[in-house]
């Protein structure tokens, strides 16, 4: 029964990532949603997710994602994306997969999977990225 929400959710997800904002996350997430992703502390609830993404967008204002493919089984939705951002003056892209658990038409859980090694190597090799990365708070998830 929940499968009919899949296509609508993917459309809203793609729209969100064309012009992302923390405020627009309410169109995708339940208030009690749990989000996990590499390089970040797990986020418990919509407000925690918004705060983490505010920090992320301050550091990477042109962060975007493009849907490449998706599939659904019961209430589980997988969306394969291509993420892009300018990091230290250099455009970078990396593949990722978002795994969502849906409750009706919104996600109550999102787990993102990607290999952070190329991104981290670029950050570490580009000292001009360090101040913005540190100020954003995304460099030190263990402190939150």
Q: Over the alpha carbons, how many angstroms does the gyration radius reach? A: 15 Å
- Contiguous helical run count: 4
| Beta content | 35-45%
Termini gap: 38 Å
Q: Could you name the ranges where pLDDT drops below 50 across 5 or more consecutive residues?
A: none
Quickly give the structural class.
alpha+beta
Write the layout of secondary structure elements.
Layout: H1 5-18, E1 29-36, E2 43-44, H2 46-59, E3 64-73, E4 76-87, E5 90-103, E6 106-113, H3 117-125, H4 130-136
Parallel strand pairs: 1-6
Antiparallel strand pairs: 1-2, 3-4, 4-5, 5-6
Could you describe the 3D structure shown?
Helix 2 (46-59) packs antiparallel against helix 4 (130-136). The protein has helices at residues 5-18, 46-59, 117-125, 130-136, and strands at residues 29-36, 43-44, 64-73, 76-87, 90-103, 106-113. The longest helix is centred in the N-terminal third of the chain and has 14 residues, at 5-18. By secondary structure, it is an alpha+beta fold. It is globular. It has a six-stranded mixed beta sheet, with helices on both faces. Strand 5 and strand 6 form a beta hairpin. The mean pLDDT is 91.
List keywords for this structure.
4 helices; 6-stranded mixed beta sheet; globular; alpha+beta; 144 residues
């Amino acid at each position: 029964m929940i499968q009919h929400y899949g296509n609508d959710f993917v459309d809203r997800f793609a729209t969100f990532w064309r012009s992302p904002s923390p405020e627009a996350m309410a169109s995708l997430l339940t208030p009690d949603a749990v989000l996990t992703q590499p390089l970040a502390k797990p986020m418990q609830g919509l407000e925690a997710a918004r705060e983490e993404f505010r920090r992320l967008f301050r550091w990477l204002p042109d962060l975007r994602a493009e849907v490449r493919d998706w599939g659904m089984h019961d209430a589980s939705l997988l969306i394969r994306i291509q993420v892009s951002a300018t990091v230290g003056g250099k455009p970078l892209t990396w593949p990722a997969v978002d795994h969502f658990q849906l409750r009706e038409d919104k996600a109550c859980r999102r787990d993102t999977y990607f290999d952070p090694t190329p991104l981290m190597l670029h950050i570490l090799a580009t000292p001009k990225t360090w101040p913005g990365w540190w100020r954003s708070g995304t460099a030190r998830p263990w402190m939150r």
